[in-house]
Amino acid sequence: MSDLLISFVVPAFNEEALIASCLAAIQAEIARTGCRAEIIVVDNNSSDGTRRIASSIPGVVIVDEPQRGLVQARRAGCLAANGELIANIDADTILPEGWLQTALGEFSRSPDLVALSGPCIYYDLPRSAQFVAAVYYRIAFATYLLVRFVLGAGSMLQGGNFIVSKSALEAAGGFNSDFRFYGEDTDLARRLSKVGPVKFSLRLPALSSGRRFVAEGLIRAGVRYAVNYVWTIFFKQPFTLTWLDIRHPSGGFGCGRQ
Questions:
Q1: Which of 48, 77, 180, 221 could form a disulfide with 16 if both were Cys (CB 3.0 to 4.6 A apart)?
Q2: Rg (CA), the chain
């Protein structure tokens, strides 16, 4: 599938501390596979140096989305994307070596696959917290199998670590503006599953910051994500309507309520 154009969409709001490492990892993956690709950073009305840093990197396209919200930023990036596959990667995420090869291999082996996702490994959490997160994802994987193959009620995507067919995304109606943060990936997975298979694979991990778990507490944040997943699957709307914008400036973790 090296002849396909892959679009990487990175939504970013005040991510000056992490955006450069995220984009460097994407560029390294593109270089390793030799695939045709574009990188789109959606500046979601940042007030720091995010736009300056991203625009200084050769080949990166900047799209402005002044309306605050993760879904709004993802939608703007995907509308600007030209690729047949769109990889949605959060700005605090670092793709490990082999991520793109694994993803392209899955799509090559399963031509009807419409979306693929995997877990996050929170590289900046203590080992004990990383272990708890790993257990959480195993439980989430079992839930995904139940929801997809037994209940037939949807599937699962990890919002900052998934790749989707652009045509399937359009057929599913794109991103749902009723969701602004929590549940947006679950809602998309539910609607995409009506178009074709949506797979969650433990073989497609990505490194991500655990800053939200540090700020909110591991158990509290995990329960909130779980409740919103179940609520979205069965009631087709988010349970939690507000969220914290948590950033990692050079001086440490910072957070402000949206």
A1: 48
A2: 17
Q: What is the pLDDT of residues 4-35, one digit of tens each?
A: 899 999 999 999 999 999 999 999 999 999 99
Quick one: tokens of 61? 């396209």
148: its two tokens? 């997809």
Average pLDDT over residues 39-48: 97
Give the CATH superfamily of 5-244: Spore Coat Polysaccharide Biosynthesis Protein SpsA; Chain A (3.90.550.10)
Instruction: Report residue 247's pLDDT band, with 50, 70 and 90 as the boundaries.
Output: confident
Sheet of 93-94, strand order = 93-94, 206-208, 120-122
Strand 254-257 and strand 244-247: the pairing is: antiparallel
| Closest residue by Cα to residue 135 from 143, 64, 156 | 143
